[in-house]
Amino acid sequence: MRYLPHTEEDVAAMLERIGVSSVEDLFAGIPESCRSLRSMDLPRPLSEWDLIARMESMAASISGGASHSVFLGAGSYSHYIPALIPQLLGRSEFTTAYTPYQPEVSQGTLQAIFEYQTLTARLLGMDVANASMYDGASALAEALLMAIRLGKGRRKVALSSAIHPHYRQVVATYFSPTEFEVIELPYDPETGVTDLSTLADIGDLAAIALQSPNFFGCIEDLQRAADLAHGEKALLVACFSEPLAFGLIKNPGIQGADIVCGEGQSLGIPQSFGGPGLGMFACRMAHVRNLPGRVVGQTKDMDGKRGFVLTLSTREQHIRREKATSNICSNQGLCATASAMYMACLGATGFRKLAALNRDKAAYLKKRLETAGFTPLFKSPVFNEFCLKAPEGFSKIRKKLMEKGMVAGLGLGEFYPELEGTFLFCATETASAASMDRLADAIREEI
Amino acid sequence: MRYLPHTEEDVAAMLERIGVSSVEDLFAGIPESCRSLRSMDLPRPLSEWDLIARMESMAASISGGASHSVFLGAGSYSHYIPALIPQLLGRSEFTTAYTPYQPEVSQGTLQAIFEYQTLTARLLGMDVANASMYDGASALAEALLMAIRLGKGRRKVALSSAIHPHYRQVVATYFSPTEFEVIELPYDPETGVTDLSTLADIGDLAAIALQSPNFFGCIEDLQRAADLAHGEKALLVACFSEPLAFGLIKNPGIQGADIVCGEGQSLGIPQSFGGPGLGMFACRMAHVRNLPGRVVGQTKDMDGKRGFVLTLSTREQHIRREKATSNICSNQGLCATASAMYMACLGATGFRKLAALNRDKAAYLKKRLETAGFTPLFKSPVFNEFCLKAPEGFSKIRKKLMEKGMVAGLGLGEFYPELEGTFLFCATETASAASMDRLADAIREEI
Amino acid sequence: FKESLLWEKGKKGRMAFSMPLSDVPSAEELPCAMAGDGPDFPDLSELEVVRHYTRLSQWNYGVDSGMYPLGSCTMKYNPKIHEKLAALPGFATAHPLLPESLSQGALGLMFELQEMLKAITGLDAASLQPAAGAHGELCGMMLFDAFFKARGEKRTKIIIPDTAHGTNPASAALCGMKPLPLRSGPDGILHAEDVAALMDENTAGIMITNPNTLGLFETNFAAIAAIVHEKGGLVYCDGANMNAVMGYVDMKRMGVDVVHFNLHKTFSTPHGGGGPGAGPVCVTRELEPFLPVPRVVKRGEGYVLETDFPESIGRLHAFYGNFGVLLKAWAYIRSLGGDLKRVSELAVLNANYIRESLKDDYDLAYEGICMHECVFSDKGLKAFGVTTLDVAKRLIDLGFHPPTVYFPLVVSGSMMVEPTETESVEELDRFIEAMKRIRKEAESEPETLLQSPSRTFVRRLDETGAARNPCLCGGM
Amino acid sequence: FKESLLWEKGKKGRMAFSMPLSDVPSAEELPCAMAGDGPDFPDLSELEVVRHYTRLSQWNYGVDSGMYPLGSCTMKYNPKIHEKLAALPGFATAHPLLPESLSQGALGLMFELQEMLKAITGLDAASLQPAAGAHGELCGMMLFDAFFKARGEKRTKIIIPDTAHGTNPASAALCGMKPLPLRSGPDGILHAEDVAALMDENTAGIMITNPNTLGLFETNFAAIAAIVHEKGGLVYCDGANMNAVMGYVDMKRMGVDVVHFNLHKTFSTPHGGGGPGAGPVCVTRELEPFLPVPRVVKRGEGYVLETDFPESIGRLHAFYGNFGVLLKAWAYIRSLGGDLKRVSELAVLNANYIRESLKDDYDLAYEGICMHECVFSDKGLKAFGVTTLDVAKRLIDLGFHPPTVYFPLVVSGSMMVEPTETESVEELDRFIEAMKRIRKEAESEPETLLQSPSRTFVRRLDETGAARNPCLCGGM
Lengths: 447, 447, 476, 476
Description:
The complex is a heterotetramer, with 2 copies of chain A and 2 copies of chain C.
Chain A: H1 8-18, H2 48-60, H3 84-89, H4 92-95, H5 107-124, E1 128-129, H6 136-150, E2 156-160, H7 165-175, E3 181-185, E4 205-211, H8 222-231, E5 235-240, E6 259-263, E7 279-283, E8 295-300, E9 306-311, H9 317-320, H10 333-371, E10 375-376, E11 385-389, H11 394-403, E12 410-411, E13 422-426, H12 433-446
Parallel strand pairs in A: 2-3, 2-4, 4-5, 5-6
Antiparallel strand pairs in A: 1-7, 6-7, 8-9, 10-11, 11-13, 12-13
Helix pairs in contact in A: 5-10, 6-7, 10-12, 11-12
Chain C: H1 46-58, H2 81-86, H3 89-92, H4 104-121, E1 125-127, H5 133-150, E2 157-161, H6 168-174, E3 178-182, H7 192-198, E4 203-209, H8 221-230, E5 234-238, H9 251-254, E6 258-260, H10 263-266, E7 281-283, E8 295-299, E9 302-306, H11 323-336, H12 340-358, E10 363-364, E11 374-377, H13 388-397, E12 404-405, E13 415-417, H14 425-444, H15 446-450, H16 463-468
Parallel strand pairs in C: 2-3, 2-4, 4-5, 5-6
Antiparallel strand pairs in C: 1-7, 6-7, 8-9, 10-11, 11-13, 12-13
């Protein structure tokens, strides 16, 4: 076995040094009550070549974004990833290192994460970001728990129902074992943005949470939400699933959000069937001691040279144990590094241009679909996603298109029963005008 | 343009420092008589994404070895390449370095090449190998020129006609501008190995050259050739196109060859439509000052620490100019490193096992094709290639099979008119029994 | 060589991204109130980006650089082929909301991985959703909570030994459970009577790391589990140290109700400088109804995502967990099959070889055979004014990553060495030699240790200052 | 950290290769006389191989590590996307003897590259077969030979200036031509009258590097070419320095009969520590019949390999040259298109910026505007006992690869600096600053220079000893 270097002679010599006569003797301490009675029921080992053949055929059976005909967003976005990112990220000094507990041999990881934190804070308009969370959904749950810690006794949080349904489900899971309550805020069926009119009646609120652009693709007025929240002495938690939007729209920080979190997959991370992604998380400096997860800080070495370390570990579980700000240990470090590389590749100039291109593509797709009989559902401006009401008989057509490898939007009825028959579409820079024409034409033909 | 860092301000500031007013001024020295009168007729720049799409479609149009149904060898062999080789070889410290003129910052390349030289010498049974040549064909040409240099006035070299026809053509090209003569030795139509009976009549021979396994796949008796050559005071140049054979058969060195050269593509290098490959070249220590190409040697640094440098440069063109042992400057350094990685991956144990597996696969294919009406052409033992006489009507069948992506051997008639209707087949470890059965069955069905 | 921070480089107008030409008209302008200025990022050329990260990588140490005996982290060799497989376009570009008919390859892989994890533990059901080990622990505690809720109970305490992993108490606390500390015995393992003294009907159960963080197998596990079960409690096994016992133990027979894996440890997906990992859980039949949704289920010849499990704790991840990590674990398990038992055997052999070879130079925390890691203390070094930290830093100068230090807390100045099975005996010998040399230096030239590391890009860093005046965001 | 040689590692029986299981019966044994023992290679585990090469790579410096101003080598940024493209399975696994119907993608790419090279030079035909620059030169000399042979002539001499590339004389010698040295003028360029004095009917022609190795454009090129042509000779242009003049010159108007490219220089395929490169040639209509076979030709909508050119010099490579390198050059040219002219402009701008910034610290070999590289001498340093070599080694300690040194021979102690267009002005400024610092150190602390480099894995090496007692093969 090429991963195991031991020859029989090696094993014999080592056993002799240890003073036992067989490898099994090393396991003699495992009592019968714990022992496995039969060998593990696993398939036979595959050679590297059979493994490749097997996985290639599995991978080939999946209809990838490479065909440019999957018009789905909803928390996972098809964006071009410069070839240099996987190539640099794949350098084994990055991939095969552990959490940088020993800073002297981990400055590469540490500086890369410090830079990630900085770029993230700039992107979101916040003071400080952590080194990453698992994904956008768990980041939102952690943000709300953080708001509760900061809320000094307040027991409720209010979530916009225009937040990604999966994110709200994860929040519910995290809150279920606790004594805290989650309240949903309705969306305005005309504009597609959160209806904040009921907010004042709730009381005892530690935080309210909105997503912008929201699940419907609509851009929320976070400033107004922040004002209302602050009026209630609650925090505004702003979340997102498409950070590229901040190339064009005002960032949440500038609009008064207290905690900003969301999913960073769009920033140079492959879609990979939903994971690994990147939970981004940022807050105001005033709240930093309540920030969950790891953070990297700048410091100096014995000679006064700039260096970086994991810091504020007094918030963390190995010091604070049950009083830690979260239980997170492994995070999405390599994905955070990938996203920093991506932000560095684009720069301010590129980020803005690419964001504009995304918005243009979505506008084009929307227009084309309207010619095919779709009608707009909401009035608010959007970024690269939007909701449309489908023409009669579309569900059948949609299935037919699937057989041709075209995925025509996401049905909203599953998440919002009142929106049965409406669909969420997405078009990014990877959608060519030709592919969008093809979709619209195919639908028009069938109707 | 992402490769060009200059902003307009940069350019302006630099021009000012230089003291000219425009970039064009820097080219003012180019006289009208040399100037291009119109802009270059090149296609418009492609974005990274359009480039990928274009090249993917070109690549996809090529019927690759991945289908395992290309039963061709003849100087280019389908072998599995461990994933670690491209990954390590692709480390930019290896790929983006130049020839190691500055040894203090090039120890990685230098040690890797020193190791390549050593493993190559061991594989071929020789004392010393150079840092690589362009390919097997040019290595053979250079070997014969070296033999002429050593031959002190002898003006002829004799080549077995069972050497790869392309290699012989390259030798002819190299010899054409010189005053030296190339003579061909016939092959024995029964055994498929070189007929050495005419050798003694030639006279004035600096070298004779044989390939083993030869172009027909047959294993030559190099020892006998060496004895005969040495009897004529000529050198034996042994060449090869499939070095994996030396896992099973006697290496050329042990059989008395003076210079050994050939193609190393089999050793971990992608087939890549024939290049880049690897010209391997080794000789006896006595002849080292006549060795063409670069060599790396071991030495010590100022502190007595082991280190490596390019050495024996007094043979080379930048010192010796027209008296150099060859004009070679850039070689196939990275391919040499790849092959060293490959030899290191296999080790003695693996190399031998894999060689045996290749021979077994070829034997199986041969047997299966015999059941489909083919008959053996030559009697000599083979490694992973062999020649068969095809049954009536096979040419048409072969075309049909091609449409199914199966390439059923290489027609020999193009290279040896007398062998019209015979074919050279190859099966390596990448050919599954199932794919060979499929081929044989398909042929049998059509006949 | 010094490498600036990203925003100390670049010039406005550069770009390292190939901007596609637009083939559509421009959309109408955003309303002013919504429009922002875009982020304040540096503009860089492609070469600037490439050099920046190439240089940063050169300041890092990974498993490919050398032995990384970081206890409790299982820093084994990460097969290179896995990176290639994870990058296959079908996997890398798969949208998670693809209709099931277009994503069978992904669902099938997940289903098979679930089956294989069940086979390795002996348990009845699995969920792949947790994105890391601590996420798996959290999932486990949520399962506990849901289990008791379904019985109309709310248990508010949980027993956590001093030899458990550091994240355990925080995971329990997130589910509103208060940890009851349990001391290990003088032999480094847990004793049934101590558990019996703590366990009651308000206690949800116990979280045991086995082998524990001292590298010792909890031989009383089954008895402890019986006590917990008798009081209606549940047993959680932290499986971070699974690399020691594959093929040797049956979690179900041991009495485990929930166990999590660290795929990035046991199944060799790379750690990536801190993630992404994956922390699947396996559970008994009794806890299966509570597993997170969606679950991957086989229907006829195909696979579907099933959400209709009314007792489920709900969704734990936006989609299905770290699929890209899962597929590497699938590849690893399929590459080894039953040889996983050999993996554990050699991991334990390597650890005992180190234990035996260094026991005269460093004080063992506990005598006798260990499992996949062994723990030393700095007791014998204190006389020379040298601590565990100094040994760790000196090892860096000798070309090794240090062991885990000052953990577990139960051993003072602990050094937790986990060599893993992929290290050869020659490499172990080199490590042993370095450790012996440091032991000698501690006596003869302690200053060398105190001043180390000296060969790294930076020397010892001021961590106190970093925490006191945090600078977490640059260039403001 | 020290890394052993391969054969100082490993143990009999290890293997870092996944040996496929056999699905066929064993062949009969080889006859005894033929059977050997197999090579004496070390047996290693996969991790041993990975660590070995990871460590070796860490001792190397590449363009991605920092500025690499090696004159005459055009060490520009190598786009990362090219590596991915070359690895596409269709390209990487293509057998060169595939029937044409199954290899149109490869043939089409080669045809298009030929067309683009023609467009860049203005010449009439191209061959992609030469595997490196010197192979291209050799091809050129063979074309000369064949051309004269076809006219019943055998010319035995060739004019080679002192500012030509080092390989030129050896290439000519291989074709039986004796180089006639031609001195450049006091202004560093060639003069028509000097050529006229040498050129006769026994002289095949001239090999000119333009821009020459002093970084100067040969302004008398057209006049020189006319003289050579008048005597029936041919003009070879060594195109290694093409990066300076793309879009500015027309090789045909200049009077060039053959020019070669170094794809690994001008078109940015990586140099790989010494290869593989590619050295295509472009020729005039008159020389086209002599180009190597096979040639890639368009037939209708498809492409074929044509061998029927009776005057051809024959085959120069076992197959079609370094296809894997060619495709990277194709990708580079397609990525830039007409912007190649901008490439040359910025390459020349960068070189002049360095020339102007350092001319007060180091002696310029020749004054005035240069093309893509500039040449300094160590004249002003000698007073301090410091040489070009010391400057080069000291640059290493300051984080830069040294320039080309002691070449061209025509300048004593020459330092040939070619920054290339992919270096930013900030990086140039850092290089200039380092060079200025060294100049100061030469005066104030020459010992620092003489002892450098001090920060590398090895210090200055004994090259004389290496040549005197060559050890070219290890472990015997």
